[in-house]
C-alpha cells in the first residue's frame, strides 16, 4: 500500500509491503497512513494484544512517536476522568474505560495519538474518539457502522486499520539501515507471572508489574513505567540516563495525581469547553498556578500517593533511581538486575520499604 509520506513529508514516495501478501498482519480500512503511523500502529497493537492475553482484560494504548504515552487495562473510571471525557462511570463500557485510562495517564502527550485496543471497536468508543484529538486507530475489528463513523473524522484523514489477531510474525527480524542488514531472532520473551515469584507481592501489584513489563517492552529505551490499578501513571522513554527517565516519568505521575486534588477537581468547566480545554485547565492549575496549590499542600497531597508499581526495561545502575521512585509512591519494583551495584539497589529498596523483583530479563527496544 502507498503511504502518505515517510518519516518526514519530504520523504516521498513511501510504501508498505507485507512480507507474505497472502497473510498481511493488518489491512487499511480508511485514511492514508504515514510511515510513523504504521510504526505506532504495529507497536501499539502488539502491546495491547500482549497485555490483554497476559492479564485477561481488555487493553488499550495511546501511542506517540513509537512509544506509549499511556497504556491501561479496563477498569474504574474515576471522577476526574468521567468529568474530563464526559462519561458516566456507572455505565461506561470496558473497552472505552481502557482507552480513557490509557489516555488520561499523560493527556498532554496523547494529543494527536495513535490508538490501539485489544477488542473490536464499539459505538461508545467511536463516539469518544470523535471528541478527542487523535490521528488513527488499530483494532482487531469494528462493530457495524463504527468504521464509517471513524472514517469521517478529520475530514476523512483519520487512519483506521484492522489487525489480524491470529497473525504471528516471522521468527527472524531484519532491518536495513545505511546499507547494512541487521538480523536477529524476534523478541518472544513475553512477561508472565513466573517472572515475579514473590510471596510479598499482592495480586494487584503483580498485575501492575506485568502491565509495566509489557509496556516498557514496546517503549523506546531507556524506558521506565509507573503503574497503579491497571493503568500507567507515567511512562519515560528514550532517555540516555536512566535516572533522568525515572524523573521525567515521575513528574508525569505527580501531574496525574495532582489533577485529583479536590481544589483542581472543583475547577468550573467553562461552557462549550472541549475535552482538551478541560485537560489544559487542569494542567495549568497543577503546573503553572502556584496560588491554587501552595507548596506545603502540594507536598502533603503528593505524599498520599501509594501502592505504585515501577518497572525498568534495563538494570537500575544506581540507588538514585530508587530514591526518585520512592518520591512517587512506589512500593513494588521489577527490573532485570545484574548491575555491579544491584546489591546496593536491593538494600536501598529494603530501606525504603519496597518489594524488589529482579527478573533477569532485559527488555530493550530500539
Structure description:
The protein folds into 2 domains: 2-184, Cytidine Deaminase, domain 2 (3-Layer(aba) Sandwich); 189-358, 3-Layer(aba) Sandwich (Cytidine Deaminase, domain 2), CATH 3.40.140.20. Helix content is 35%, strand content 21%. It is built from 12 helices and 15 strands. The strands form 4 sheets. It has a 6-stranded mixed β-sheet with strand order 3-8-7-6-4-5. The longest helix is centred in the first third of the chain and has 21 residues, at 35-55. The two termini are 25 Å apart. The mean pLDDT is 95.
Which key features would you list for this structure?
366 residues, alpha/beta, 6-stranded mixed β-sheet, single chain, globular, 5-stranded mixed β-sheet, Cytidine Deaminase, domain 2, 12 helices
Architecture blueprint of SSEs:
Blueprint: E1 2-3, E2 14-15, E3 26-30, H1 35-55, E4 59-64, E5 67-73, H2 79-85, H3 94-104, E6 113-117, H4 123-130, E7 134-139, H5 146-151, E8 159-163, E9 172-177, E10 180-185, H6 203-217, E11 223-228, E12 231-237, H7 242-258, H8 262-265, H9 275-287, H10 295-302, E13 308-312, H11 320-326, E14 330-335, H12 342-351, E15 355-358
Parallel strand pairs: 6-7, 7-8, 13-14, 14-15
Antiparallel strand pairs: 1-2, 3-8, 4-5, 4-6, 9-10, 11-12, 11-13
Helix pairs in contact: 1-6, 7-11
Amino acid at each position: 500500500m502507498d503511504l502518505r509520506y515517510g518519516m518526514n513529508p519530504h520523504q516521498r514516495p513511501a510504501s508498505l509491503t507485507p512480507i507474505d501478501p497472502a497473510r498481511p498482519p493488518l489491512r487499511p480500512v480508511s485514511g492514508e497512513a504515514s510511515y510513523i503511523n504504521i510504526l505506532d500502529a504495529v507497536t501499539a497493537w502488539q502491546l495491547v494484544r500482549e497485555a490483554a492475553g497476559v492479564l485477561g482484560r481488555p487493553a488499550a494504548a495511546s501511542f506517540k512517536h513509537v512509544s506509549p504515552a499511556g497504556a491501561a487495562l479496563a477498569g474504574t473510571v474515576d471522577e476526574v476522568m468521567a468529568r474530563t471525557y464526559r462519561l458516566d462511570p456507572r455505565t461506561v463500557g470496558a473497552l472505552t474505560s481502557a482507552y480513557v485510562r490509557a489516555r488520561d495517564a499523560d493527556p498532554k502527550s496523547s494529543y494527536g495519538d495513535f490508538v490501539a485496543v485489544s477488542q473490536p471497536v464499539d459505538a461508545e468508543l467511536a463516539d469518544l474518539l470523535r471528541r478527542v484529538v487523535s490521528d488513527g486507530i488499530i483494532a482487531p475489528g469494528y462493530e457495524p457502522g463504527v468504521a464509517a463513523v471513524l472514517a469521517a473524522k478529520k475530514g476523512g484523514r483519520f487512519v483506521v486499520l484492522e489487525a489480524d489477531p491470529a497473525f504471528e510474525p516471522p521468527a527472524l527480524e531484519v532491518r536495513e539501515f545505511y546499507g547494512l542488514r541487521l538480523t536477529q531472532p524476534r523478541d518472544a520473551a513475553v512477561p508472565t507471572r513466573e517472572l515475579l515469584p514473590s510471596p510479598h507481592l499482592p495480586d494487584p501489584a503483580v498485575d501492575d508489574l506485568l502491565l509495566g513489563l509489557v509496556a516498557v517492552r514496546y517503549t523506546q529505551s531507556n524506558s521506565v513505567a509507573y503503574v497503579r490499578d491497571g493503568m500507567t501513571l507515567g511512562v519515560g522513554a528514550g532517555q540516555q540516563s536512566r535516572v533522568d527517565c525515572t524523573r521525567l516519568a515521575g513528574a508525569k505521575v505527580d501531574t496525574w495525581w495532582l489533577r485529583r486534588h479536590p481544589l483542581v477537581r472543583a475547577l468550573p468547566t467553562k461552557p462549550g469547553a472541549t475535552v482538551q480545554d478541560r485537560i489544559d485547565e487542569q494542567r495549568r492549575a497543577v503546573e503553572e498556578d502556584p496560588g491554587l496549590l501552595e507548596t506545603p499542600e502540594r507536598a502533603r497531597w503528593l505524599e498520599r500517593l501509594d501502592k505504585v508499581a515501577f518497572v525498568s526495561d534495563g538494570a537500575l545502575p544506581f540507588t538514585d533511581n530508587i530514591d526518585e521512585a520512592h518520591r512517587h509512591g512506589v512500593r513494588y519494583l521489577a527490573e532485570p538486575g545484574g548491575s555491579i551495584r544491584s546489591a546496593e539497589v536491593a538494600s536501598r529498596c529494603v530501606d525504603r520499604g519496597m518489594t524488589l523483583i529482579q527478573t533477569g530479563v532485559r527488555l530493550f527496544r530500539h
